[in-house]
Write a structure and sequence with these properties.
Length: 430
């Protein structure tokens, strides 16, 4: 009888993490009113009533329908929020297993285990497990995308890889329906691979890539047709983009480009920022007098108009905000008007390890670019365009967390071929 190794039973091997995630849900239950939870539950209720956004002028397209569609059955059955959170626990657990299945294909058992455990203990995402928010669904989709893309490009013929082409396209499309920024990643990648195809029309990998991306665009087509019908705008993914860009473009000293929930500030926040400088109300009153008289798309356009003027008038301050934004993406710091907090140090280990190892892996990646499996190159392109786009919109560390599974696949692939680690010394070590 064949004895199964632990690598043959990843669902069982990583099962303790599912128990850990369930324990987090029990210890920190959600009320359904934190952050954007009300929005997503509200969108699910809208869908039950036959629409997604109210009609003009009060169009509400801040969040995409990917996650509301997932929670729709729970809302329809009026189930306790615990069950939605329990789904998050299952999805995070599955993301661990699927990431391991990806890593085992491109590296040794030990490397695959090491990087998978790094992801399993990625506590920056633990905070989202109990909540009705799309972050856990997103990382699950990204983890499944990794194994699907690896399978797709390992198969040499187009016909035999068609099921993975379709699967990868649907996953990327659903990512765009969950997080709007992935919609812009799709458009950018389509343009890039069309240019590359012109340089090498016989490349099966370029053709596979374009088909994947076209399928992803088709997956989002019903929603884009819906938003076009509401707004008259093509490829309109979300109405929150102008708001984010406005805060990224702020020219005021003391503001680092982080999003501020103005004008719905809590009293303690208002009191905290008072001092030798003007309050947020005084700094932004003129802008918001112009913006808040609009609703929906018109308000989004007003935000963008002022933001673009800010960028043109204060390019150096905008550049400074971009660098602050990159720091927030990696380390969740700095935030406008926020005091330094010890808990920020908790974010450093995971992001710091990825950053340092990533800097090391850049050189062998460049030197061996054509030798690297195309699946790794595709995933790397995908994540870099996503992160590059995130740098120019008010962001935080959860945006970085979305792409960590892909980065771990890249790091495992490169480091397993570039680093030889010997923990036991022998005579030749001296």
């Amino acid at each position: 009888m064949k004895i199964l190794k632990w690598t043959d039973r990843p669902f069982l091997f990583f099962f303790p993490f599912l128990l850990l995630f369930i324990a987090i849900i029990i210890l920190f239950p959600t009320s359904g009113i934190s952050g954007d939870e009300k929005n997503y539950l509200g969108y699910a209720n809208n869908l039950l009533n036959g629409y997604y956004s109210p009609p003009p002028p009060g169009i509400d397209l801040q969040n995409s329908p990917g996650y509301p569609l997932i929670v729709l059955p729970f809302v329809a059955l009026n189930t306790p929020l615990f069950f939605i959170a329990f789904l998050n626990a299952i999805l995070f657990y599955f993301s661990i297993v699927f990431l391991f299945k990806s890593l085992i294909r491109i590296s040794s058992n030990k490397v695959a285990l090491l990087f998978t455990l790094f992801w399993a203990f990625y506590y920056n995402l633990y905070v989202y497990i109990p909540y009705v928010l799309p972050e856990i669904l997103t990382v699950f989709l990204v983890s499944v995308l990794c194994i699907s893309i690896i399978n797709c490009f390992e198969i040499k013929t187009f016909k035999q890889s068609i099921k993975y082409i379709i699967l990868s396209g649907i996953i990327i499309g659903y990512l765009a329906l969950t997080k709007p920024i992935f919609g812009y990643v799709i458009i950018t990648l389509i343009v890039c691979f069309l240019i590359l195809l012109v340089t090498n029309v016989r490349s099966i990998n370029y053709r596979k890539s374009i088909f994947i991306l076209m399928i992803s665009l088709i997956t989002t087509a019903p929603y884009l047709l819906y938003t076009f019908n509401l707004t008259g705008k093509l490829f309109y993914w979300s109405s929150i983009g102008g708001n984010n860009l406005y805060w990224m473009s702020t020219p005021h000293e003391g503001e680092s480009g982080s999003w501020i929930n103005y004008p719905m500030l809590e009293v303690d926040n208002i009191n905290r920022i008072k001092g030798s400088h003007a309050t947020i109300e005084e700094l932004h009153k003129d802008d918001f007098d112009k913006i808040l008289k609009f609703e929906g798309v018109e308000q989004d356009n007003a935000f963008k108009k002022i933001a673009i003027n800010n960028i043109k008038s204060h390019p150096l301050k905008f550049t400074k905000n971009v660098f602050s934004n990159i720091s927030r993406i990696l380390f969740n710091f700095p935030y406008s008007y926020e005091p330094q907090r010890a808990r920020t140090l908790i974010r450093l280990p995971h992001s710091g390890i990825i950053l340092v190892l990533g800097l090391f892996c850049i050189i062998p990646t460049i030197l061996n670019w054509r030798k690297i499996a195309f699946s790794i190159r595709f995933l790397l392109f995908f994540s870099l365009i996503y992160l590059g786009g995130s740098a120019f919109g008010s962001a935080e560390i959860r945006m970085f967390s979305m792409t960590v599974p892909i980065l771990l696949v890249w790091l495992a692939y490169i480091s397993s071929r570039s680093i030889k680690l010997d923990l036991r010394w022998n005579k030749s070590s001296f």
